[in-house]
């Protein structure tokens, strides 16, 4: 009976040992790296189920131990060894399971903590981003820039870096124990990039705000300097006007004041631009504060400019205007000399030379005419003359007269140049035909004065060659006619002498051809 009992116990021990081995093998087979967060729950539930099974099987193990010791008999040494091994394996598996449950419980908590920390830190980064990128934060004045700097500094100091450090502590811990979830890794990486970028943006914004503060401090100093300059300049101008001293009397002083007025004009425009930019950006309080200062100095500056205009009134305007008007009148009165009435290129060349002198006269006085026009309009704009409309009319007439004469002289120059070139070509072409005619006429006269000799081969060949040359002269006469038409087109009037010279020369050549034909009929 004891043997039978021991055999049954031994079989149950073996069955329980096989169960333990199967569970350990099955359970720890798929216990590698974690790549998605559901694995935390799956593995935790897996080990919790095994823990439950172990708890349920624990009763079986204790029953086997008790049965080996029952009836007061001496326990079997062999069974006792088996049971000791079983208990050892049981305890080992139990510890592993407990350890895994503790591990995955911790990992699950770390994962949840990491997600919560990322949510909190990203929410803080959202708030930080809104503070440094909200449009109304730009174009602030000194007061608002200072307030924003304080706000950013307090906002960053009030947020400890412990959560940031904890995020990477947990991330490193998970990576160490082969937890590599792509989504959470991506979130951590994006958080790191965003944290670094936004803190870099904070530095840039702080730098911008500090620059704005510096700009406004500089602006304040420039306004104070301008007020001091206006007070000093007002004293100087009052003294000059009281003593009837004007800009032309003290040119270096006037030039210096002109530069300074221009500089402060630009300065005031810059302030206006800044006020406009503040209003567009919705910074109405800042715009109002700056505009209050601007209105005061602008009014004082305008009053000072009125005094400066009186001081600038030129003393040389009237003499220069009269001189320019007379020169233009002289050019107008000499314009008739440019009319082309001769077909002599040398005469036209002299006209061209005269035209170039008129052109040079207009070119030489261009700057003076522009000066008179500019000063005249300036006098009108600045209210430095009583009859502004009369002066405006005179300046307009002077400008129109100069432009009209300039256009007419330029046209005449081009016309004379073209006509001269065509006339010289005409003269050259005409001379070529005429010289040929004179030579041919001389030869035929000698032949005509000799006795007629039939079949004189030399005479016959010369007549034939000369008549062929006459035919070729048709092209030369066509060139002359074309040149005549071009000249008439340029001059816009006929020059009868050209046509008469062409006709007479053509008549002479035609007559020569008839004489040659008559002689040819005789000698052949």
What does this structure look like?
α13 runs antiparallel to α14. Helices cover 85% and strands 0% of the residues. The longest helix has 61 residues. With 524 residues, it is an all-alpha fold. The chain is built from 14 helices and no strands.
Sequence of secondary-structure elements: HHHHHHHHHHHHHH
Radius of gyration: 58 Å
Taken together, the total number of domains comes to 5
- Which class do the helix and strand fractions yield? mainly alpha
Helix content: over 70%
Overall geometry: elongated
Subcellular location: Cytoplasm
GO cellular component, one term: plasma membrane
Keywords: Calcium, Coiled coil, Cytoplasm, Cytoskeleton
Main location: cytoplasm
Q: Helices, strands, pairings?
A:
Blueprint: H1 2-29, H2 38-68, H3 77-133, H4 142-157, H5 162-176, H6 182-242, H7 251-280, H8 284-312, H9 317-333, H10 345-364, H11 366-381, H12 388-448, H13 457-491, H14 496-523
Helix pairs in contact: 1-2, 1-3, 2-3, 3-5, 3-6, 4-6, 6-8, 7-8, 9-11, 9-12, 10-12, 11-12, 12-13, 12-14, 13-14
Keywords: Calcium, Coiled coil, Cytoplasm, Cytoskeleton
Subcellular location: Cytoplasm
Coiled coil: 388-429, 463-522
